[in-house]
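seq as requested:
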Amino acid sequence: MRPVDYNAAAGVFAFRHNGPRRHMTHRRFPTTAEALQFAVEGLPPSAQAVLETDEERFEGLTIRQMYEAETYPLERAQRPLS
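C-alpha cells:
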C-alpha cells in the first residue's frame, strides 16, 4: 500500500443490514483522516465501510490499519474500539 494522503478529500460508503434489507449511505469528507475517523469511530460495528480517496478504494482491515498508523494525524477515540 502506498503512503496515505490524509489531507485528500474522501468519501465513505457504509452498508448496514437490517434483516433481509441492506441500507447504503454515502458521506463526503474534506480529508481522508476525517473519513477514516468516521468509518472507525462513527459507524456501528455491524456496518461495512468502503473508503474512497485519490481514485482508490479501501475496506475492512485496510481502513483499520490506516486509522491505527503512526502517521494518522487526528486524535483517536479514548474508548476501546472493537
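Strands lie at 10-18, 21-29, 48-53, 56-59.
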